Amino acid sequence: MTQPSKIYLSSPHMSGAEEKYVQETFTSNWIAPLGPNVDGFEKDLCDFTGAKYAAALISGTAAIHLALIMLDVKPGDVVLCQSLTFSASANPIAYQGATPVFVDSEPETWNMCPEYLEKSIKACLNGELEVNGNKINPQKPKAIIPVHLYGMPAKMDEITAVANKHDIPIVEDAAESLGSTYKGRQTGTFGKMSVLSFNGNKIITTSGGGALLSDDEHLIKKARFLATQARDPAPHYQHSHIGYNYRMSNILAAIGRGQMEVLDKRVEKRRENNQRYREMFMDVEGVSFLNEPRGCFSNYWLTTIQVDPAKTGGVTCESIRLALEEKNIESRPLWKPMHMQPVFANYPYCGGDVSKELFEKGLCLPSGSNLDDQDFERIEKVICKLFG
Ligand SMILES: *Cc1c(COP(=O)(O)O)cnc(C)c1O
Known about the structure:
Layout: H1 17-27, H2 36-49, E1 53-57, H3 60-70, E2 78-82, H4 91-95, E3 99-103, H5 114-125, E4 130-131, E5 134-135, E6 143-145, H6 156-165, E7 171-173, E8 181-182, E9 185-186, E10 193-197, E11 210-214, H7 217-227, H8 250-260, H9 263-280, E12 287-289, E13 296-297, E14 303-307, H10 309-312, H11 317-326, E15 332-333, E16 349-350, H12 354-361, E17 362-365, H13 373-387
Parallel strand pairs: 2-3, 2-6, 3-16, 7-10
Antiparallel strand pairs: 1-11, 4-5, 8-9, 8-13, 10-11, 12-14, 14-17, 15-17
Helix pairs in contact: 1-8, 2-8, 3-7
The protein binds pyridoxal-5'-phosphate (PLP).
Residues 59-61, 85-86, 88-89, 147, 173, 175-176, 197, 199, 210 line the site of pyridoxal-5'-phosphate (PLP).
């Protein structure tokens, strides 16, 4: 028998509307440079999120990098970052030669714990942190990077209160949470600067891309300037800043505009997927879900479960992953916390074992908005067999 087609964790889901916008770029030969679709896509993002200004960029990573550059993060500085996240949240700290300090999660949303955040700031101010046995000079962290992991909004009221108390700007990593809301407000509007991603596996995609959002026009103008090689206004090429080639192309922005037309539908479908998994596991002892706390609305970009082998009769998240893989179905462990990553192992960590335990017991299930009934039947078959 031939292997059934692969079910992906989260694959691109085009609406058809993208082609209309892409065709326009060909008709007008506006393949490059920046053009009307970039402007249009930025406006779509502002209209959707309520952010005042947006800069479309080549990636979410580039957006975080520019945010840190504009906050003047440089060697010797400290930036606080949620530990349980994708490495792209933290890598730009290293690009700037600064020191990341990783903060544990709280169990309710799996995102940055406000108490450990406060502790990490105090430890930093008091010069208690070390890298490779060397004390870091007492200092105020330059930025805080909380993440809305898998679409679940972080405790932004509490995190913002701590940040404001110490006057430290938030760079909000909303790469996974476009369409999620916290107390009625879209994620991506809580940071001094906020970051979106349109990478291939995100809730909408431009094949690759990202955006920086802010209510501060000056910051977004500066991001656009830095992202296009920092050219001074002069007919010759003159530069007084180091520039970057980080701007989104007009073609990719065309795809983004088509995707924005269906974003609400994509959120709805991902939430339906989540509901479907809850029903699938309803009678299974030892498998639990990440639930929305009051005031949180998740786009459920990925549906995640926690598996407790003490209660499942020995079934682990890894045995579920392997059983799915055998049937050509992709699932994935949670992000491995940054403080457990070899590349960041020497940097300070403030927290307990929340993110570590979530990682050890967690699994991301196939969650694409293009999953159909047949796909779910295949998944359910594997799960039924495992749990008898
Ligand atoms: C995807 C992602 C990013 C990076 O976005 P890219 O567009 O892939 O560079 C950053 N942070 C988190 C949490 C992400 O999931």
